[in-house]
């Protein structure tokens, strides 16, 4: 049963404003202004539908002829999108990773879009539902797949992966100092009996990692790492960023909400490179000003949640929203 789990959308006003409001230049404007009442036309993409918090609000600012393509890997998110589609024919659903957006939109005859939203990571229903295996606080099977219809579970991976690979994943995707010790403990444990549940893994990590960061469960980083790896979260993001410049129409906007530094770094570097492509060219090349590559994106900066939003929705604590607009320059 999914209905008891709800998701509180983060940075709702600022994100939708960033996508639909026109005639603003400074960050202060899109963060604080109410979303304009004039309806906006065009094609928009919500790459991470979740429970549709952003999508619903965005739709209320789109014209009757606009289209909203929504993606999610999670079958339960797709069910929710289907419920929305029954009430609103502007919604088009794709049950797949958002990195497939360029090809998927092409199949619908769409080459350019006016706005792309990504609210990365997992939703509250995914964490709160113990049977999904994302939470180290609740007993459940070690699954951790966003898309439960394909791919291998965390249990299968922990049983079969090379121990060096497990160490590298925990180190790189969890930025965990004790990755080696944790991987070793997993190796020892699986010689006697397989790790089957979330609490078994959480307890194993707690027993191995003595040092704790203030207020953080010792297994936080390990769970984050396995989840990022199994769901190919960083690869999905990198592939999508690579296609965003092609997909966005001139003046089209991208709004991306990240929840940890690995994601945010990718988004930040991508925007910085597109804002100033000339920086990548050697100073020693004899290029005239007119031959230098021009900006492909204009950045509207980043924001984080206000103190009030964090109090009302603790999940917004680590959210960083970055916004940029496509220029007219061809790639
Ligand atoms: C933070 S939630 C989005 C919440 C949504 N904005 C709302 O207000 O309800 C992230 C959602 O994106 C999905 N997701 C994460 N990475 C994805 C990817 N690469 N492709 C498709 N869906 C993804 C997850 O399954 C989850 O449902």
TrEMBL record:
The keyword RNA-binding does not apply. GO terms for biological process: rRNA base methylation. One of its GO terms (molecular function) is rRNA (cytosine-N4-)-methyltransferase activity. It catalyses: cytidine(1402) in 16S rRNA + S-adenosyl-L-methionine = N(4)-methylcytidine(1402) in 16S rRNA + S-adenosyl-L-homocysteine + H(+). InterPro entries: RsmH (IPR002903), SAM-dep_MeTrfase_MraW_recog (IPR023397), SAM-dependent_MTases_sf (IPR029063). S-adenosyl-L-methionine binds at residues 52-54, 72, 98, 119, 126. SUPFAM superfamilies: Putative methyltransferase TM0872, insert domain, S-adenosyl-L-methionine-dependent methyltransferases. Keywords: Cytoplasm, Methyltransferase, rRNA processing, S-adenosyl-L-methionine, Transferase. HAMAP family: 16SrRNA_methyltr_H. Specifically methylates the N4 position of cytidine in position 1402 (C1402) of 16S rRNA. This is Ribosomal RNA small subunit methyltransferase H.
